[in-house]
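Archive entry. Fields below.
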Amino acid sequence: MASAGVFDDVTSSESSLRRFLHGLPGVDQVGAEARAASLGTRSIKTTAKNFAIDLAIRMVDLTTLEGADTHGKVRALASKAMHPDPADPTCPMTAAVCVYPDMVATAKATLGSSGVNVAAVATAFPSGRAALDIKLADTRDAVEAGADEIDMVIDRGAFLSGRYLEVYDEIVAVKEACGPAHLKIIFETGELQTYDNVRRASWLGMMAGGHFIKTSTGKVQPAATLPVTMIMLEAVRDFREQTGQMVGVKPAGGIKTTKDAIKYLVMVNEVAGPDWLDPDWFRFGASTLLNDLLMQRTKMVTGRYSGPDYFTLD
Amino acid sequence: MVKVPEKATPFFEYAPAPESRAIVDIKASYGLFIDGEFVDGHGKSFKTISPSTEEVLAEIAEADDSDVDLAVKAARRAHSRVWGRMPGSERAKYLYRIARIIQERGRELAVLESIDNGKPIKESRDVDIPVVAAHFFYYAGWADKLGHAGLGADPKSLGVAGQIIPWNFPLLMLAWKIAPALAAGNTVVLKPAETTPLTALLFAEICQQADLPPGVVNIVTGAGATGQAIVAHADVDKVAFTGSTDVGKAIARAVAGTKKKVTLELGGKAANIVFDDAPIDQAVEGIVNGIFFNQGHVCCAGSRLLVQESVADEVLERLKRRMSTLRVGDPLDKNTDIGAINSAEQLAKIRELSAIGEAEGGERWSPPCDLPKNGFWFPPTLFTGVTQAHRIAREEIFGPVLSVITFRTPKEAVEKANNTPFGLSAGVWTDKGSRILWMANQLRAGVVWANTFNKFDPTSPFGGYKESGYGREGGLPGLAAYLKGTD
Amino acid sequence: MARIDVKKTYKLYIGGAFPRSESGRSYVVNDAKGNLMANAAQASRKDARDAVIAARHAFGGWSSKTAYNRSQVVYRIAEVLEGRRDQFVAELRASEGVTAAKANAAVDAAIDRLVWYAGWADKITQVVSSANPVAGPYFNISSSEPTGVVAVVAPSGPLLGLVSVIAPIIVTGNTCVVIASEEHPLTSITLGEVMATSDLPGGVVNMLTGSVAEIAPWLASHMDVNGIDLTGVTDADLATSLEVAAADNLKRVRRAPEAPIDWMATPGIDRLTDWLETKTVWHPIGI
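PREDICTED_STRUCTURE:
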């Protein structure tokens, strides 16, 4: 079931869907990038910085997506998600850990009822090149193993060749396979290339019922960028305008520093609006970002600069 | 995709992020910069204040006729003995040197500009001062290449240039005037605006640091009478003025019957035209940038929004939402988007025209915003229900006030856009390439920004049609305005 | 008995037609020997007003013609002038009292001047325009466009001087209202006849004959005139007052020459660029 029938006409045929997506306002690359850069010049200091750092930690989907992942590594990551700064109990937990489906059970066992979610990348992540039934099985496996959230990838090949309905139907099918789990839809914006495509993909994903739209797998460059995220924030803002429903946004890959994370939060605040300043509506897909946030947090608390040796490498 | 949250999310309140004032050293009083030295004037003095606090910043000498005469004489001497004879390659090195010092002292200049003018530090820091340096760099490189300017093998400088600049971009307008004049081998007597003299006086110090020969640049501060003395001086060869159309006309009359060359960069009432196929979010940014950049104190400001009826409601809704995120306040706060109105006089004019707009039936809207108690402030404002007949749609307000007018067809857009005595700039927003070029052809304006607005570059000629003035600044035409051909 | 020849009535040239002055006035134009050549129409301020309306009306179409087309039209004027050269030689000899050789040389030069300017139509934009390498992802082009309606006080050179001021104005896409030489007005109307038969749209060139001192101030202060060429103004006070009046709407002013002009010399491009505006267009470059 997609978005409560609002877009039934739009998604009833390939041609109507195409007409709708191509009727969305265009995006001027230079203007969009200039706006994103300008938001990046906001100066977030003192109390605002404290607020932003803690919020950013709460929004992290602490991620490991390596062929070399082991149960030990996932357990360590999950512990870190619950206690990012063991020395400081006031430090908030991250939103989730993000792992491959076969690691879901391990993560879930460690996290228990801590409140940190388990997110699993499914649907033949990262390429998405598999038959639909395999993608659906991948999804169901992860959910059965305890995943609270599924991060799926769209079929970029189908999208780029204009087979939008196929992409839409696949998302709807995966969402159904998710059952109670929330669905994040990864566009791999680095492969979509244009902001026009990012805007179309965003609407496609939202109409298909995604809870979150997500930039990237982290396996393709460029991954998340400020302007791409801004286009998606504009899309969720406009979608709420039209339907009253909110969709979350998750930039993933390449966000490494507190400074970067704060730029994203400023953008969330000023483009989508303060309602999105919540882990329910905005996430960072990241791994090394967390330690930098912790380091800056310590600086804010102690007044002196910290160093990497004081934070765990997991 | 879930329902909208019921709980209010904690507000991301940006804490004050003030740029330090400590970097600038404002003296209690300033004299005139004549023949390489700061000297006392023979006239009275006046105060320059910070428009954001009304604090008195310094006492400024008001140059009288005799001071202007001394400055012109110094410029003449410097022209005939030193600067006009110096090889272009040597003049170039002085200009490069000045460009470098401007970069080195960029933060200081930006802070001083924001204090004296009221513009947000992010604009003085990210736009004004970098473009000032860029102008000196650009024209420095011309100084030894004048033979390639299309004016014959060995074009000559005009002599002494009298230059009068406005308060909206004090140092940037100085750069637009001084850089090409000096590159071409002229010497200058420049008068900064009465309300914003400080960065020009700091520029005088930079000339000293650069060891620029005495008399090449002379800065005389003062008001209208000082400007008149420059224009009227018999030994001035060229007058360059940026400011109001009324004063521009007075200058054009004053130089009638003389041999003085003139460049005038005057007012505008630019149309920013948004078609229904525009990249809408960038168009909204362009509208905001077009009218609220620099508090709307911009001659080429996009003060008339012409929006196609089919998207008017959507554009307005997005525009209002965007305007609600504009931060008005302390110019030195790095998060300020809109600073102070430059003077009490300008504020009164903006208020008066806005009141007229309301009286004539325009519907006025501003986002909620707390304005500081002291200083001169005006919220970002838009008027809907405006027609071409309204005064706010015809007169230059020179403030953060946008008039919204609708149109139905491209032809109607062009007719309305051109239906003004001004012709400085225009904006066009559409995704259709051939329409952009058609519009660009039809619009009677010196600068057309398509899918962008308020962009400036030293290489790019700027100036108006009709009552927006004549001559161009920037690029090769900006250089040629200070040269005479030899053929 | 000798045949009584048919004398020509010299009228004004406005909007492609040849009307009499609305004022009904005319003035006597004598030849170099002091004998009556003709009665020229003595244009009034209302004729000037009508001429400006005609010029403004013609501006849109003329300025939007291709440069190639304008080039051919001006070349066509040269062709037609060549075909009627004997008439002009005769007129010049009579009005100026010059020798046949001199009159022929002047007509030759006027034809050649038209050809020279005709060639500029599609070149001047290339010479004065630029692609500007701005520091950012923008396509940035400055190109020239005609200023609009230009008022001209023509110099006394009845043909060569006249052609030399009109050709650069129109070949760049402007339209004009010309006050002919007060002393030698008739050739301007004959030139108008050439223009009227040269594919030049009506209103692009409008010729007024009469008193410069009477008509010029109305044109100088006219708010729908964009530029004024004072080449033919010989009275310094009048020139100053016209320049002052021109400031009312910031007309572009070409001042009266400081020294007599040698019309036989090859001109520069300044008479072209005087009536051109630079338009700079920006567009982002992106995908």
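CURATOR_NOTE: The interface with chain C takes residues 28-31, 33, 193-194 of chain A (CB under 8 Å).
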